[in-house]
């Protein structure tokens, strides 16, 4: 049962968008930018992992504060936070693997455990993992913590499949996309929980986007198309900008109200 504080906070409007086709398109675009932008800043611009991590973490914190201060879902601060948390999640994985020499198997397992723990704490506190009732500050903080771990996990899992298991970036993207398709089919025909299906798909879109980004940006000799991190990042950022502008004007993904209980 919610306490008095939760009941009072439940009058707030939902802080996340409706899950539409636009949601999934921007999510994949953001995950691709997270992969390519991290490489662009750390390697191409020679900032290094440490400086890039500090700068992007600071930018993410500023964006998150703006998102938390908003009284309802607003496309610009929300999706800016998603893009930046995607970059930060990538950098966390890269720092552990490239900077500290931790194996991809270890980071994948560790991030999976951290995500499960975040979900467990969230459910224990709120009795729901639904994104349709992100109507209190506490639920929003649990939400963004889970999002961060999904991005870090997706980065490690994507690199594990593409590099450690030697599937390559293109084939890895296809494998993870097939997993999403299976999840959707299971949701349609096996009546699994829509909340469970959502979070499985959300986790899997991260390695899909990361693998697409690497496939486009990496040189041909490394199994990519050779577009480069600059061109790939600009292309996908442009797509995000266009869609967020459309959603800001149309408001088609706004949840007008949400119940106090999931």
Layout: helices, strands, pairs:
Blueprint: H1 4-9, H2 21-44, H3 48-69, H4 75-99, H5 104-126, H6 137-164, H7 169-189, H8 194-217, H9 229-250
Transmembrane segments: 21-41, 47-66, 73-93, 99-121, 141-161, 167-189, 196-217, 229-249
InterPro entries: DUF347
Keywords: Membrane, Transmembrane, Transmembrane helix
Task: Describe this protein's structure.
The chain has 262 residues and is mainly α. It has one domain (17-250). It is built from 9 helices and no strands. It has helices at residues 4-9, 21-44, 48-69, 75-99, 104-126, 137-164, 169-189, 194-217, 229-250. Helix 2 (21-44) packs antiparallel against helix 3 (48-69), helix 2 (21-44) packs antiparallel against helix 9 and helix 6 crosses helix 7. Residues 1-11 have low confidence and may be disordered. This is Membrane-anchored protein. The chain crosses the membrane at residues 21-41, 47-66, 73-93, 99-121, 141-161, 167-189, 196-217, 229-249.
Largest sheet: none
How much helical structure, as a percent, in the residues? over 70%
Shape label? globular
Mean pLDDT: 87
Separation of the first and last Cα atoms: 12 Å
Portion in beta strands: under 5%
Helix tally equals 9
Structural class of the secondary structure composition? mainly alpha
Q: What is the H/E string?
A: HHHHHHHHH
Report a brief summary of the structure.
The protein is mostly helical. The chain contains 9 helices and no strands.
